[in-house]
Amino acid sequence: MRTNKEFQEIVNQGKGKREIVELYQTFMSEEIDEFIEAYEEKSEYAAMKECCDIAIVCQPVIDNGRFFERLRAKLFKHASRLVMKKRYSFKKDDFEKAEIQVVKSNFSKFIEAEDTEFAKNYFKDKGINVELKQISDGLYSAVSTEDQTVSGKFYKKGKVLKGPFYEEVNESIKFW
């Protein structure tokens, strides 16, 4: 089973500390916006997923492990409040299981070296201008080359996009 630490090692490869912090601050900002949107829409599944995403992207920015655990506990508390409003049962173990599913989904954003031509055509067919950036040996990510709106969806320049083999988190899993 792949872990968040492995995911971060791949994303962080070849980057300096400052670049890593800036990258994850961008990720954090995006995930917080997505959490607020999910919260306002009262979607417990999306809010839970976004709480997991926030916990995952905060980890590399925070050097003190105890602070990370306190942040993670607060995110769990917010996620449980959302779910309890809907009268669902929800436990800390559920949050941890959900995090594992989110990490698995995050790994599916990567594009393997042998699939780069397919990925280029995938984005070209969708009308999305991207650059495939090598992030580690044999793995690439698709990055928006400009601010662009395609089929009503806005892609900010520099945003890492979901690749052609991206797998959403399965919301039918019991703990959602």
Summarize the structure.
The chain is α+β, with helices and mostly antiparallel strands and 176 residues long.
Keywords:
176 residues, alpha+beta, 2 domains, four-stranded antiparallel β-sheet, two-stranded antiparallel sheet, 6 strands, 55% helix
Give a written overview of the molecule.
This protein is α+β, with helices and mostly antiparallel strands and 176 residues long. It folds into two domains: 107 residues, no CATH class; 56 residues, no CATH class. Helices cover 55% and strands 13% of the residues. It contains six helices and six strands; from the N terminus they run H-H-H-H-H-E-H-E-E-E-E-E. The strands form two sheets. Strands 1, 2, 3 and 6 form a four-stranded antiparallel β-sheet that branches. Strands 4-5 form a two-stranded antiparallel ribbon. Strand 4 and strand 5 form a beta hairpin.
Question: What is the strand and helix layout of this fold?
Answer:
Layout: H1 4-12, H2 17-40, H3 44-58, H4 65-85, H5 92-107, E1 111-112, H6 116-126, E2 130-136, E3 139-144, E4 148-150, E5 153-155, E6 160-161
Antiparallel strand pairs: 1-3, 2-3, 3-6, 4-5
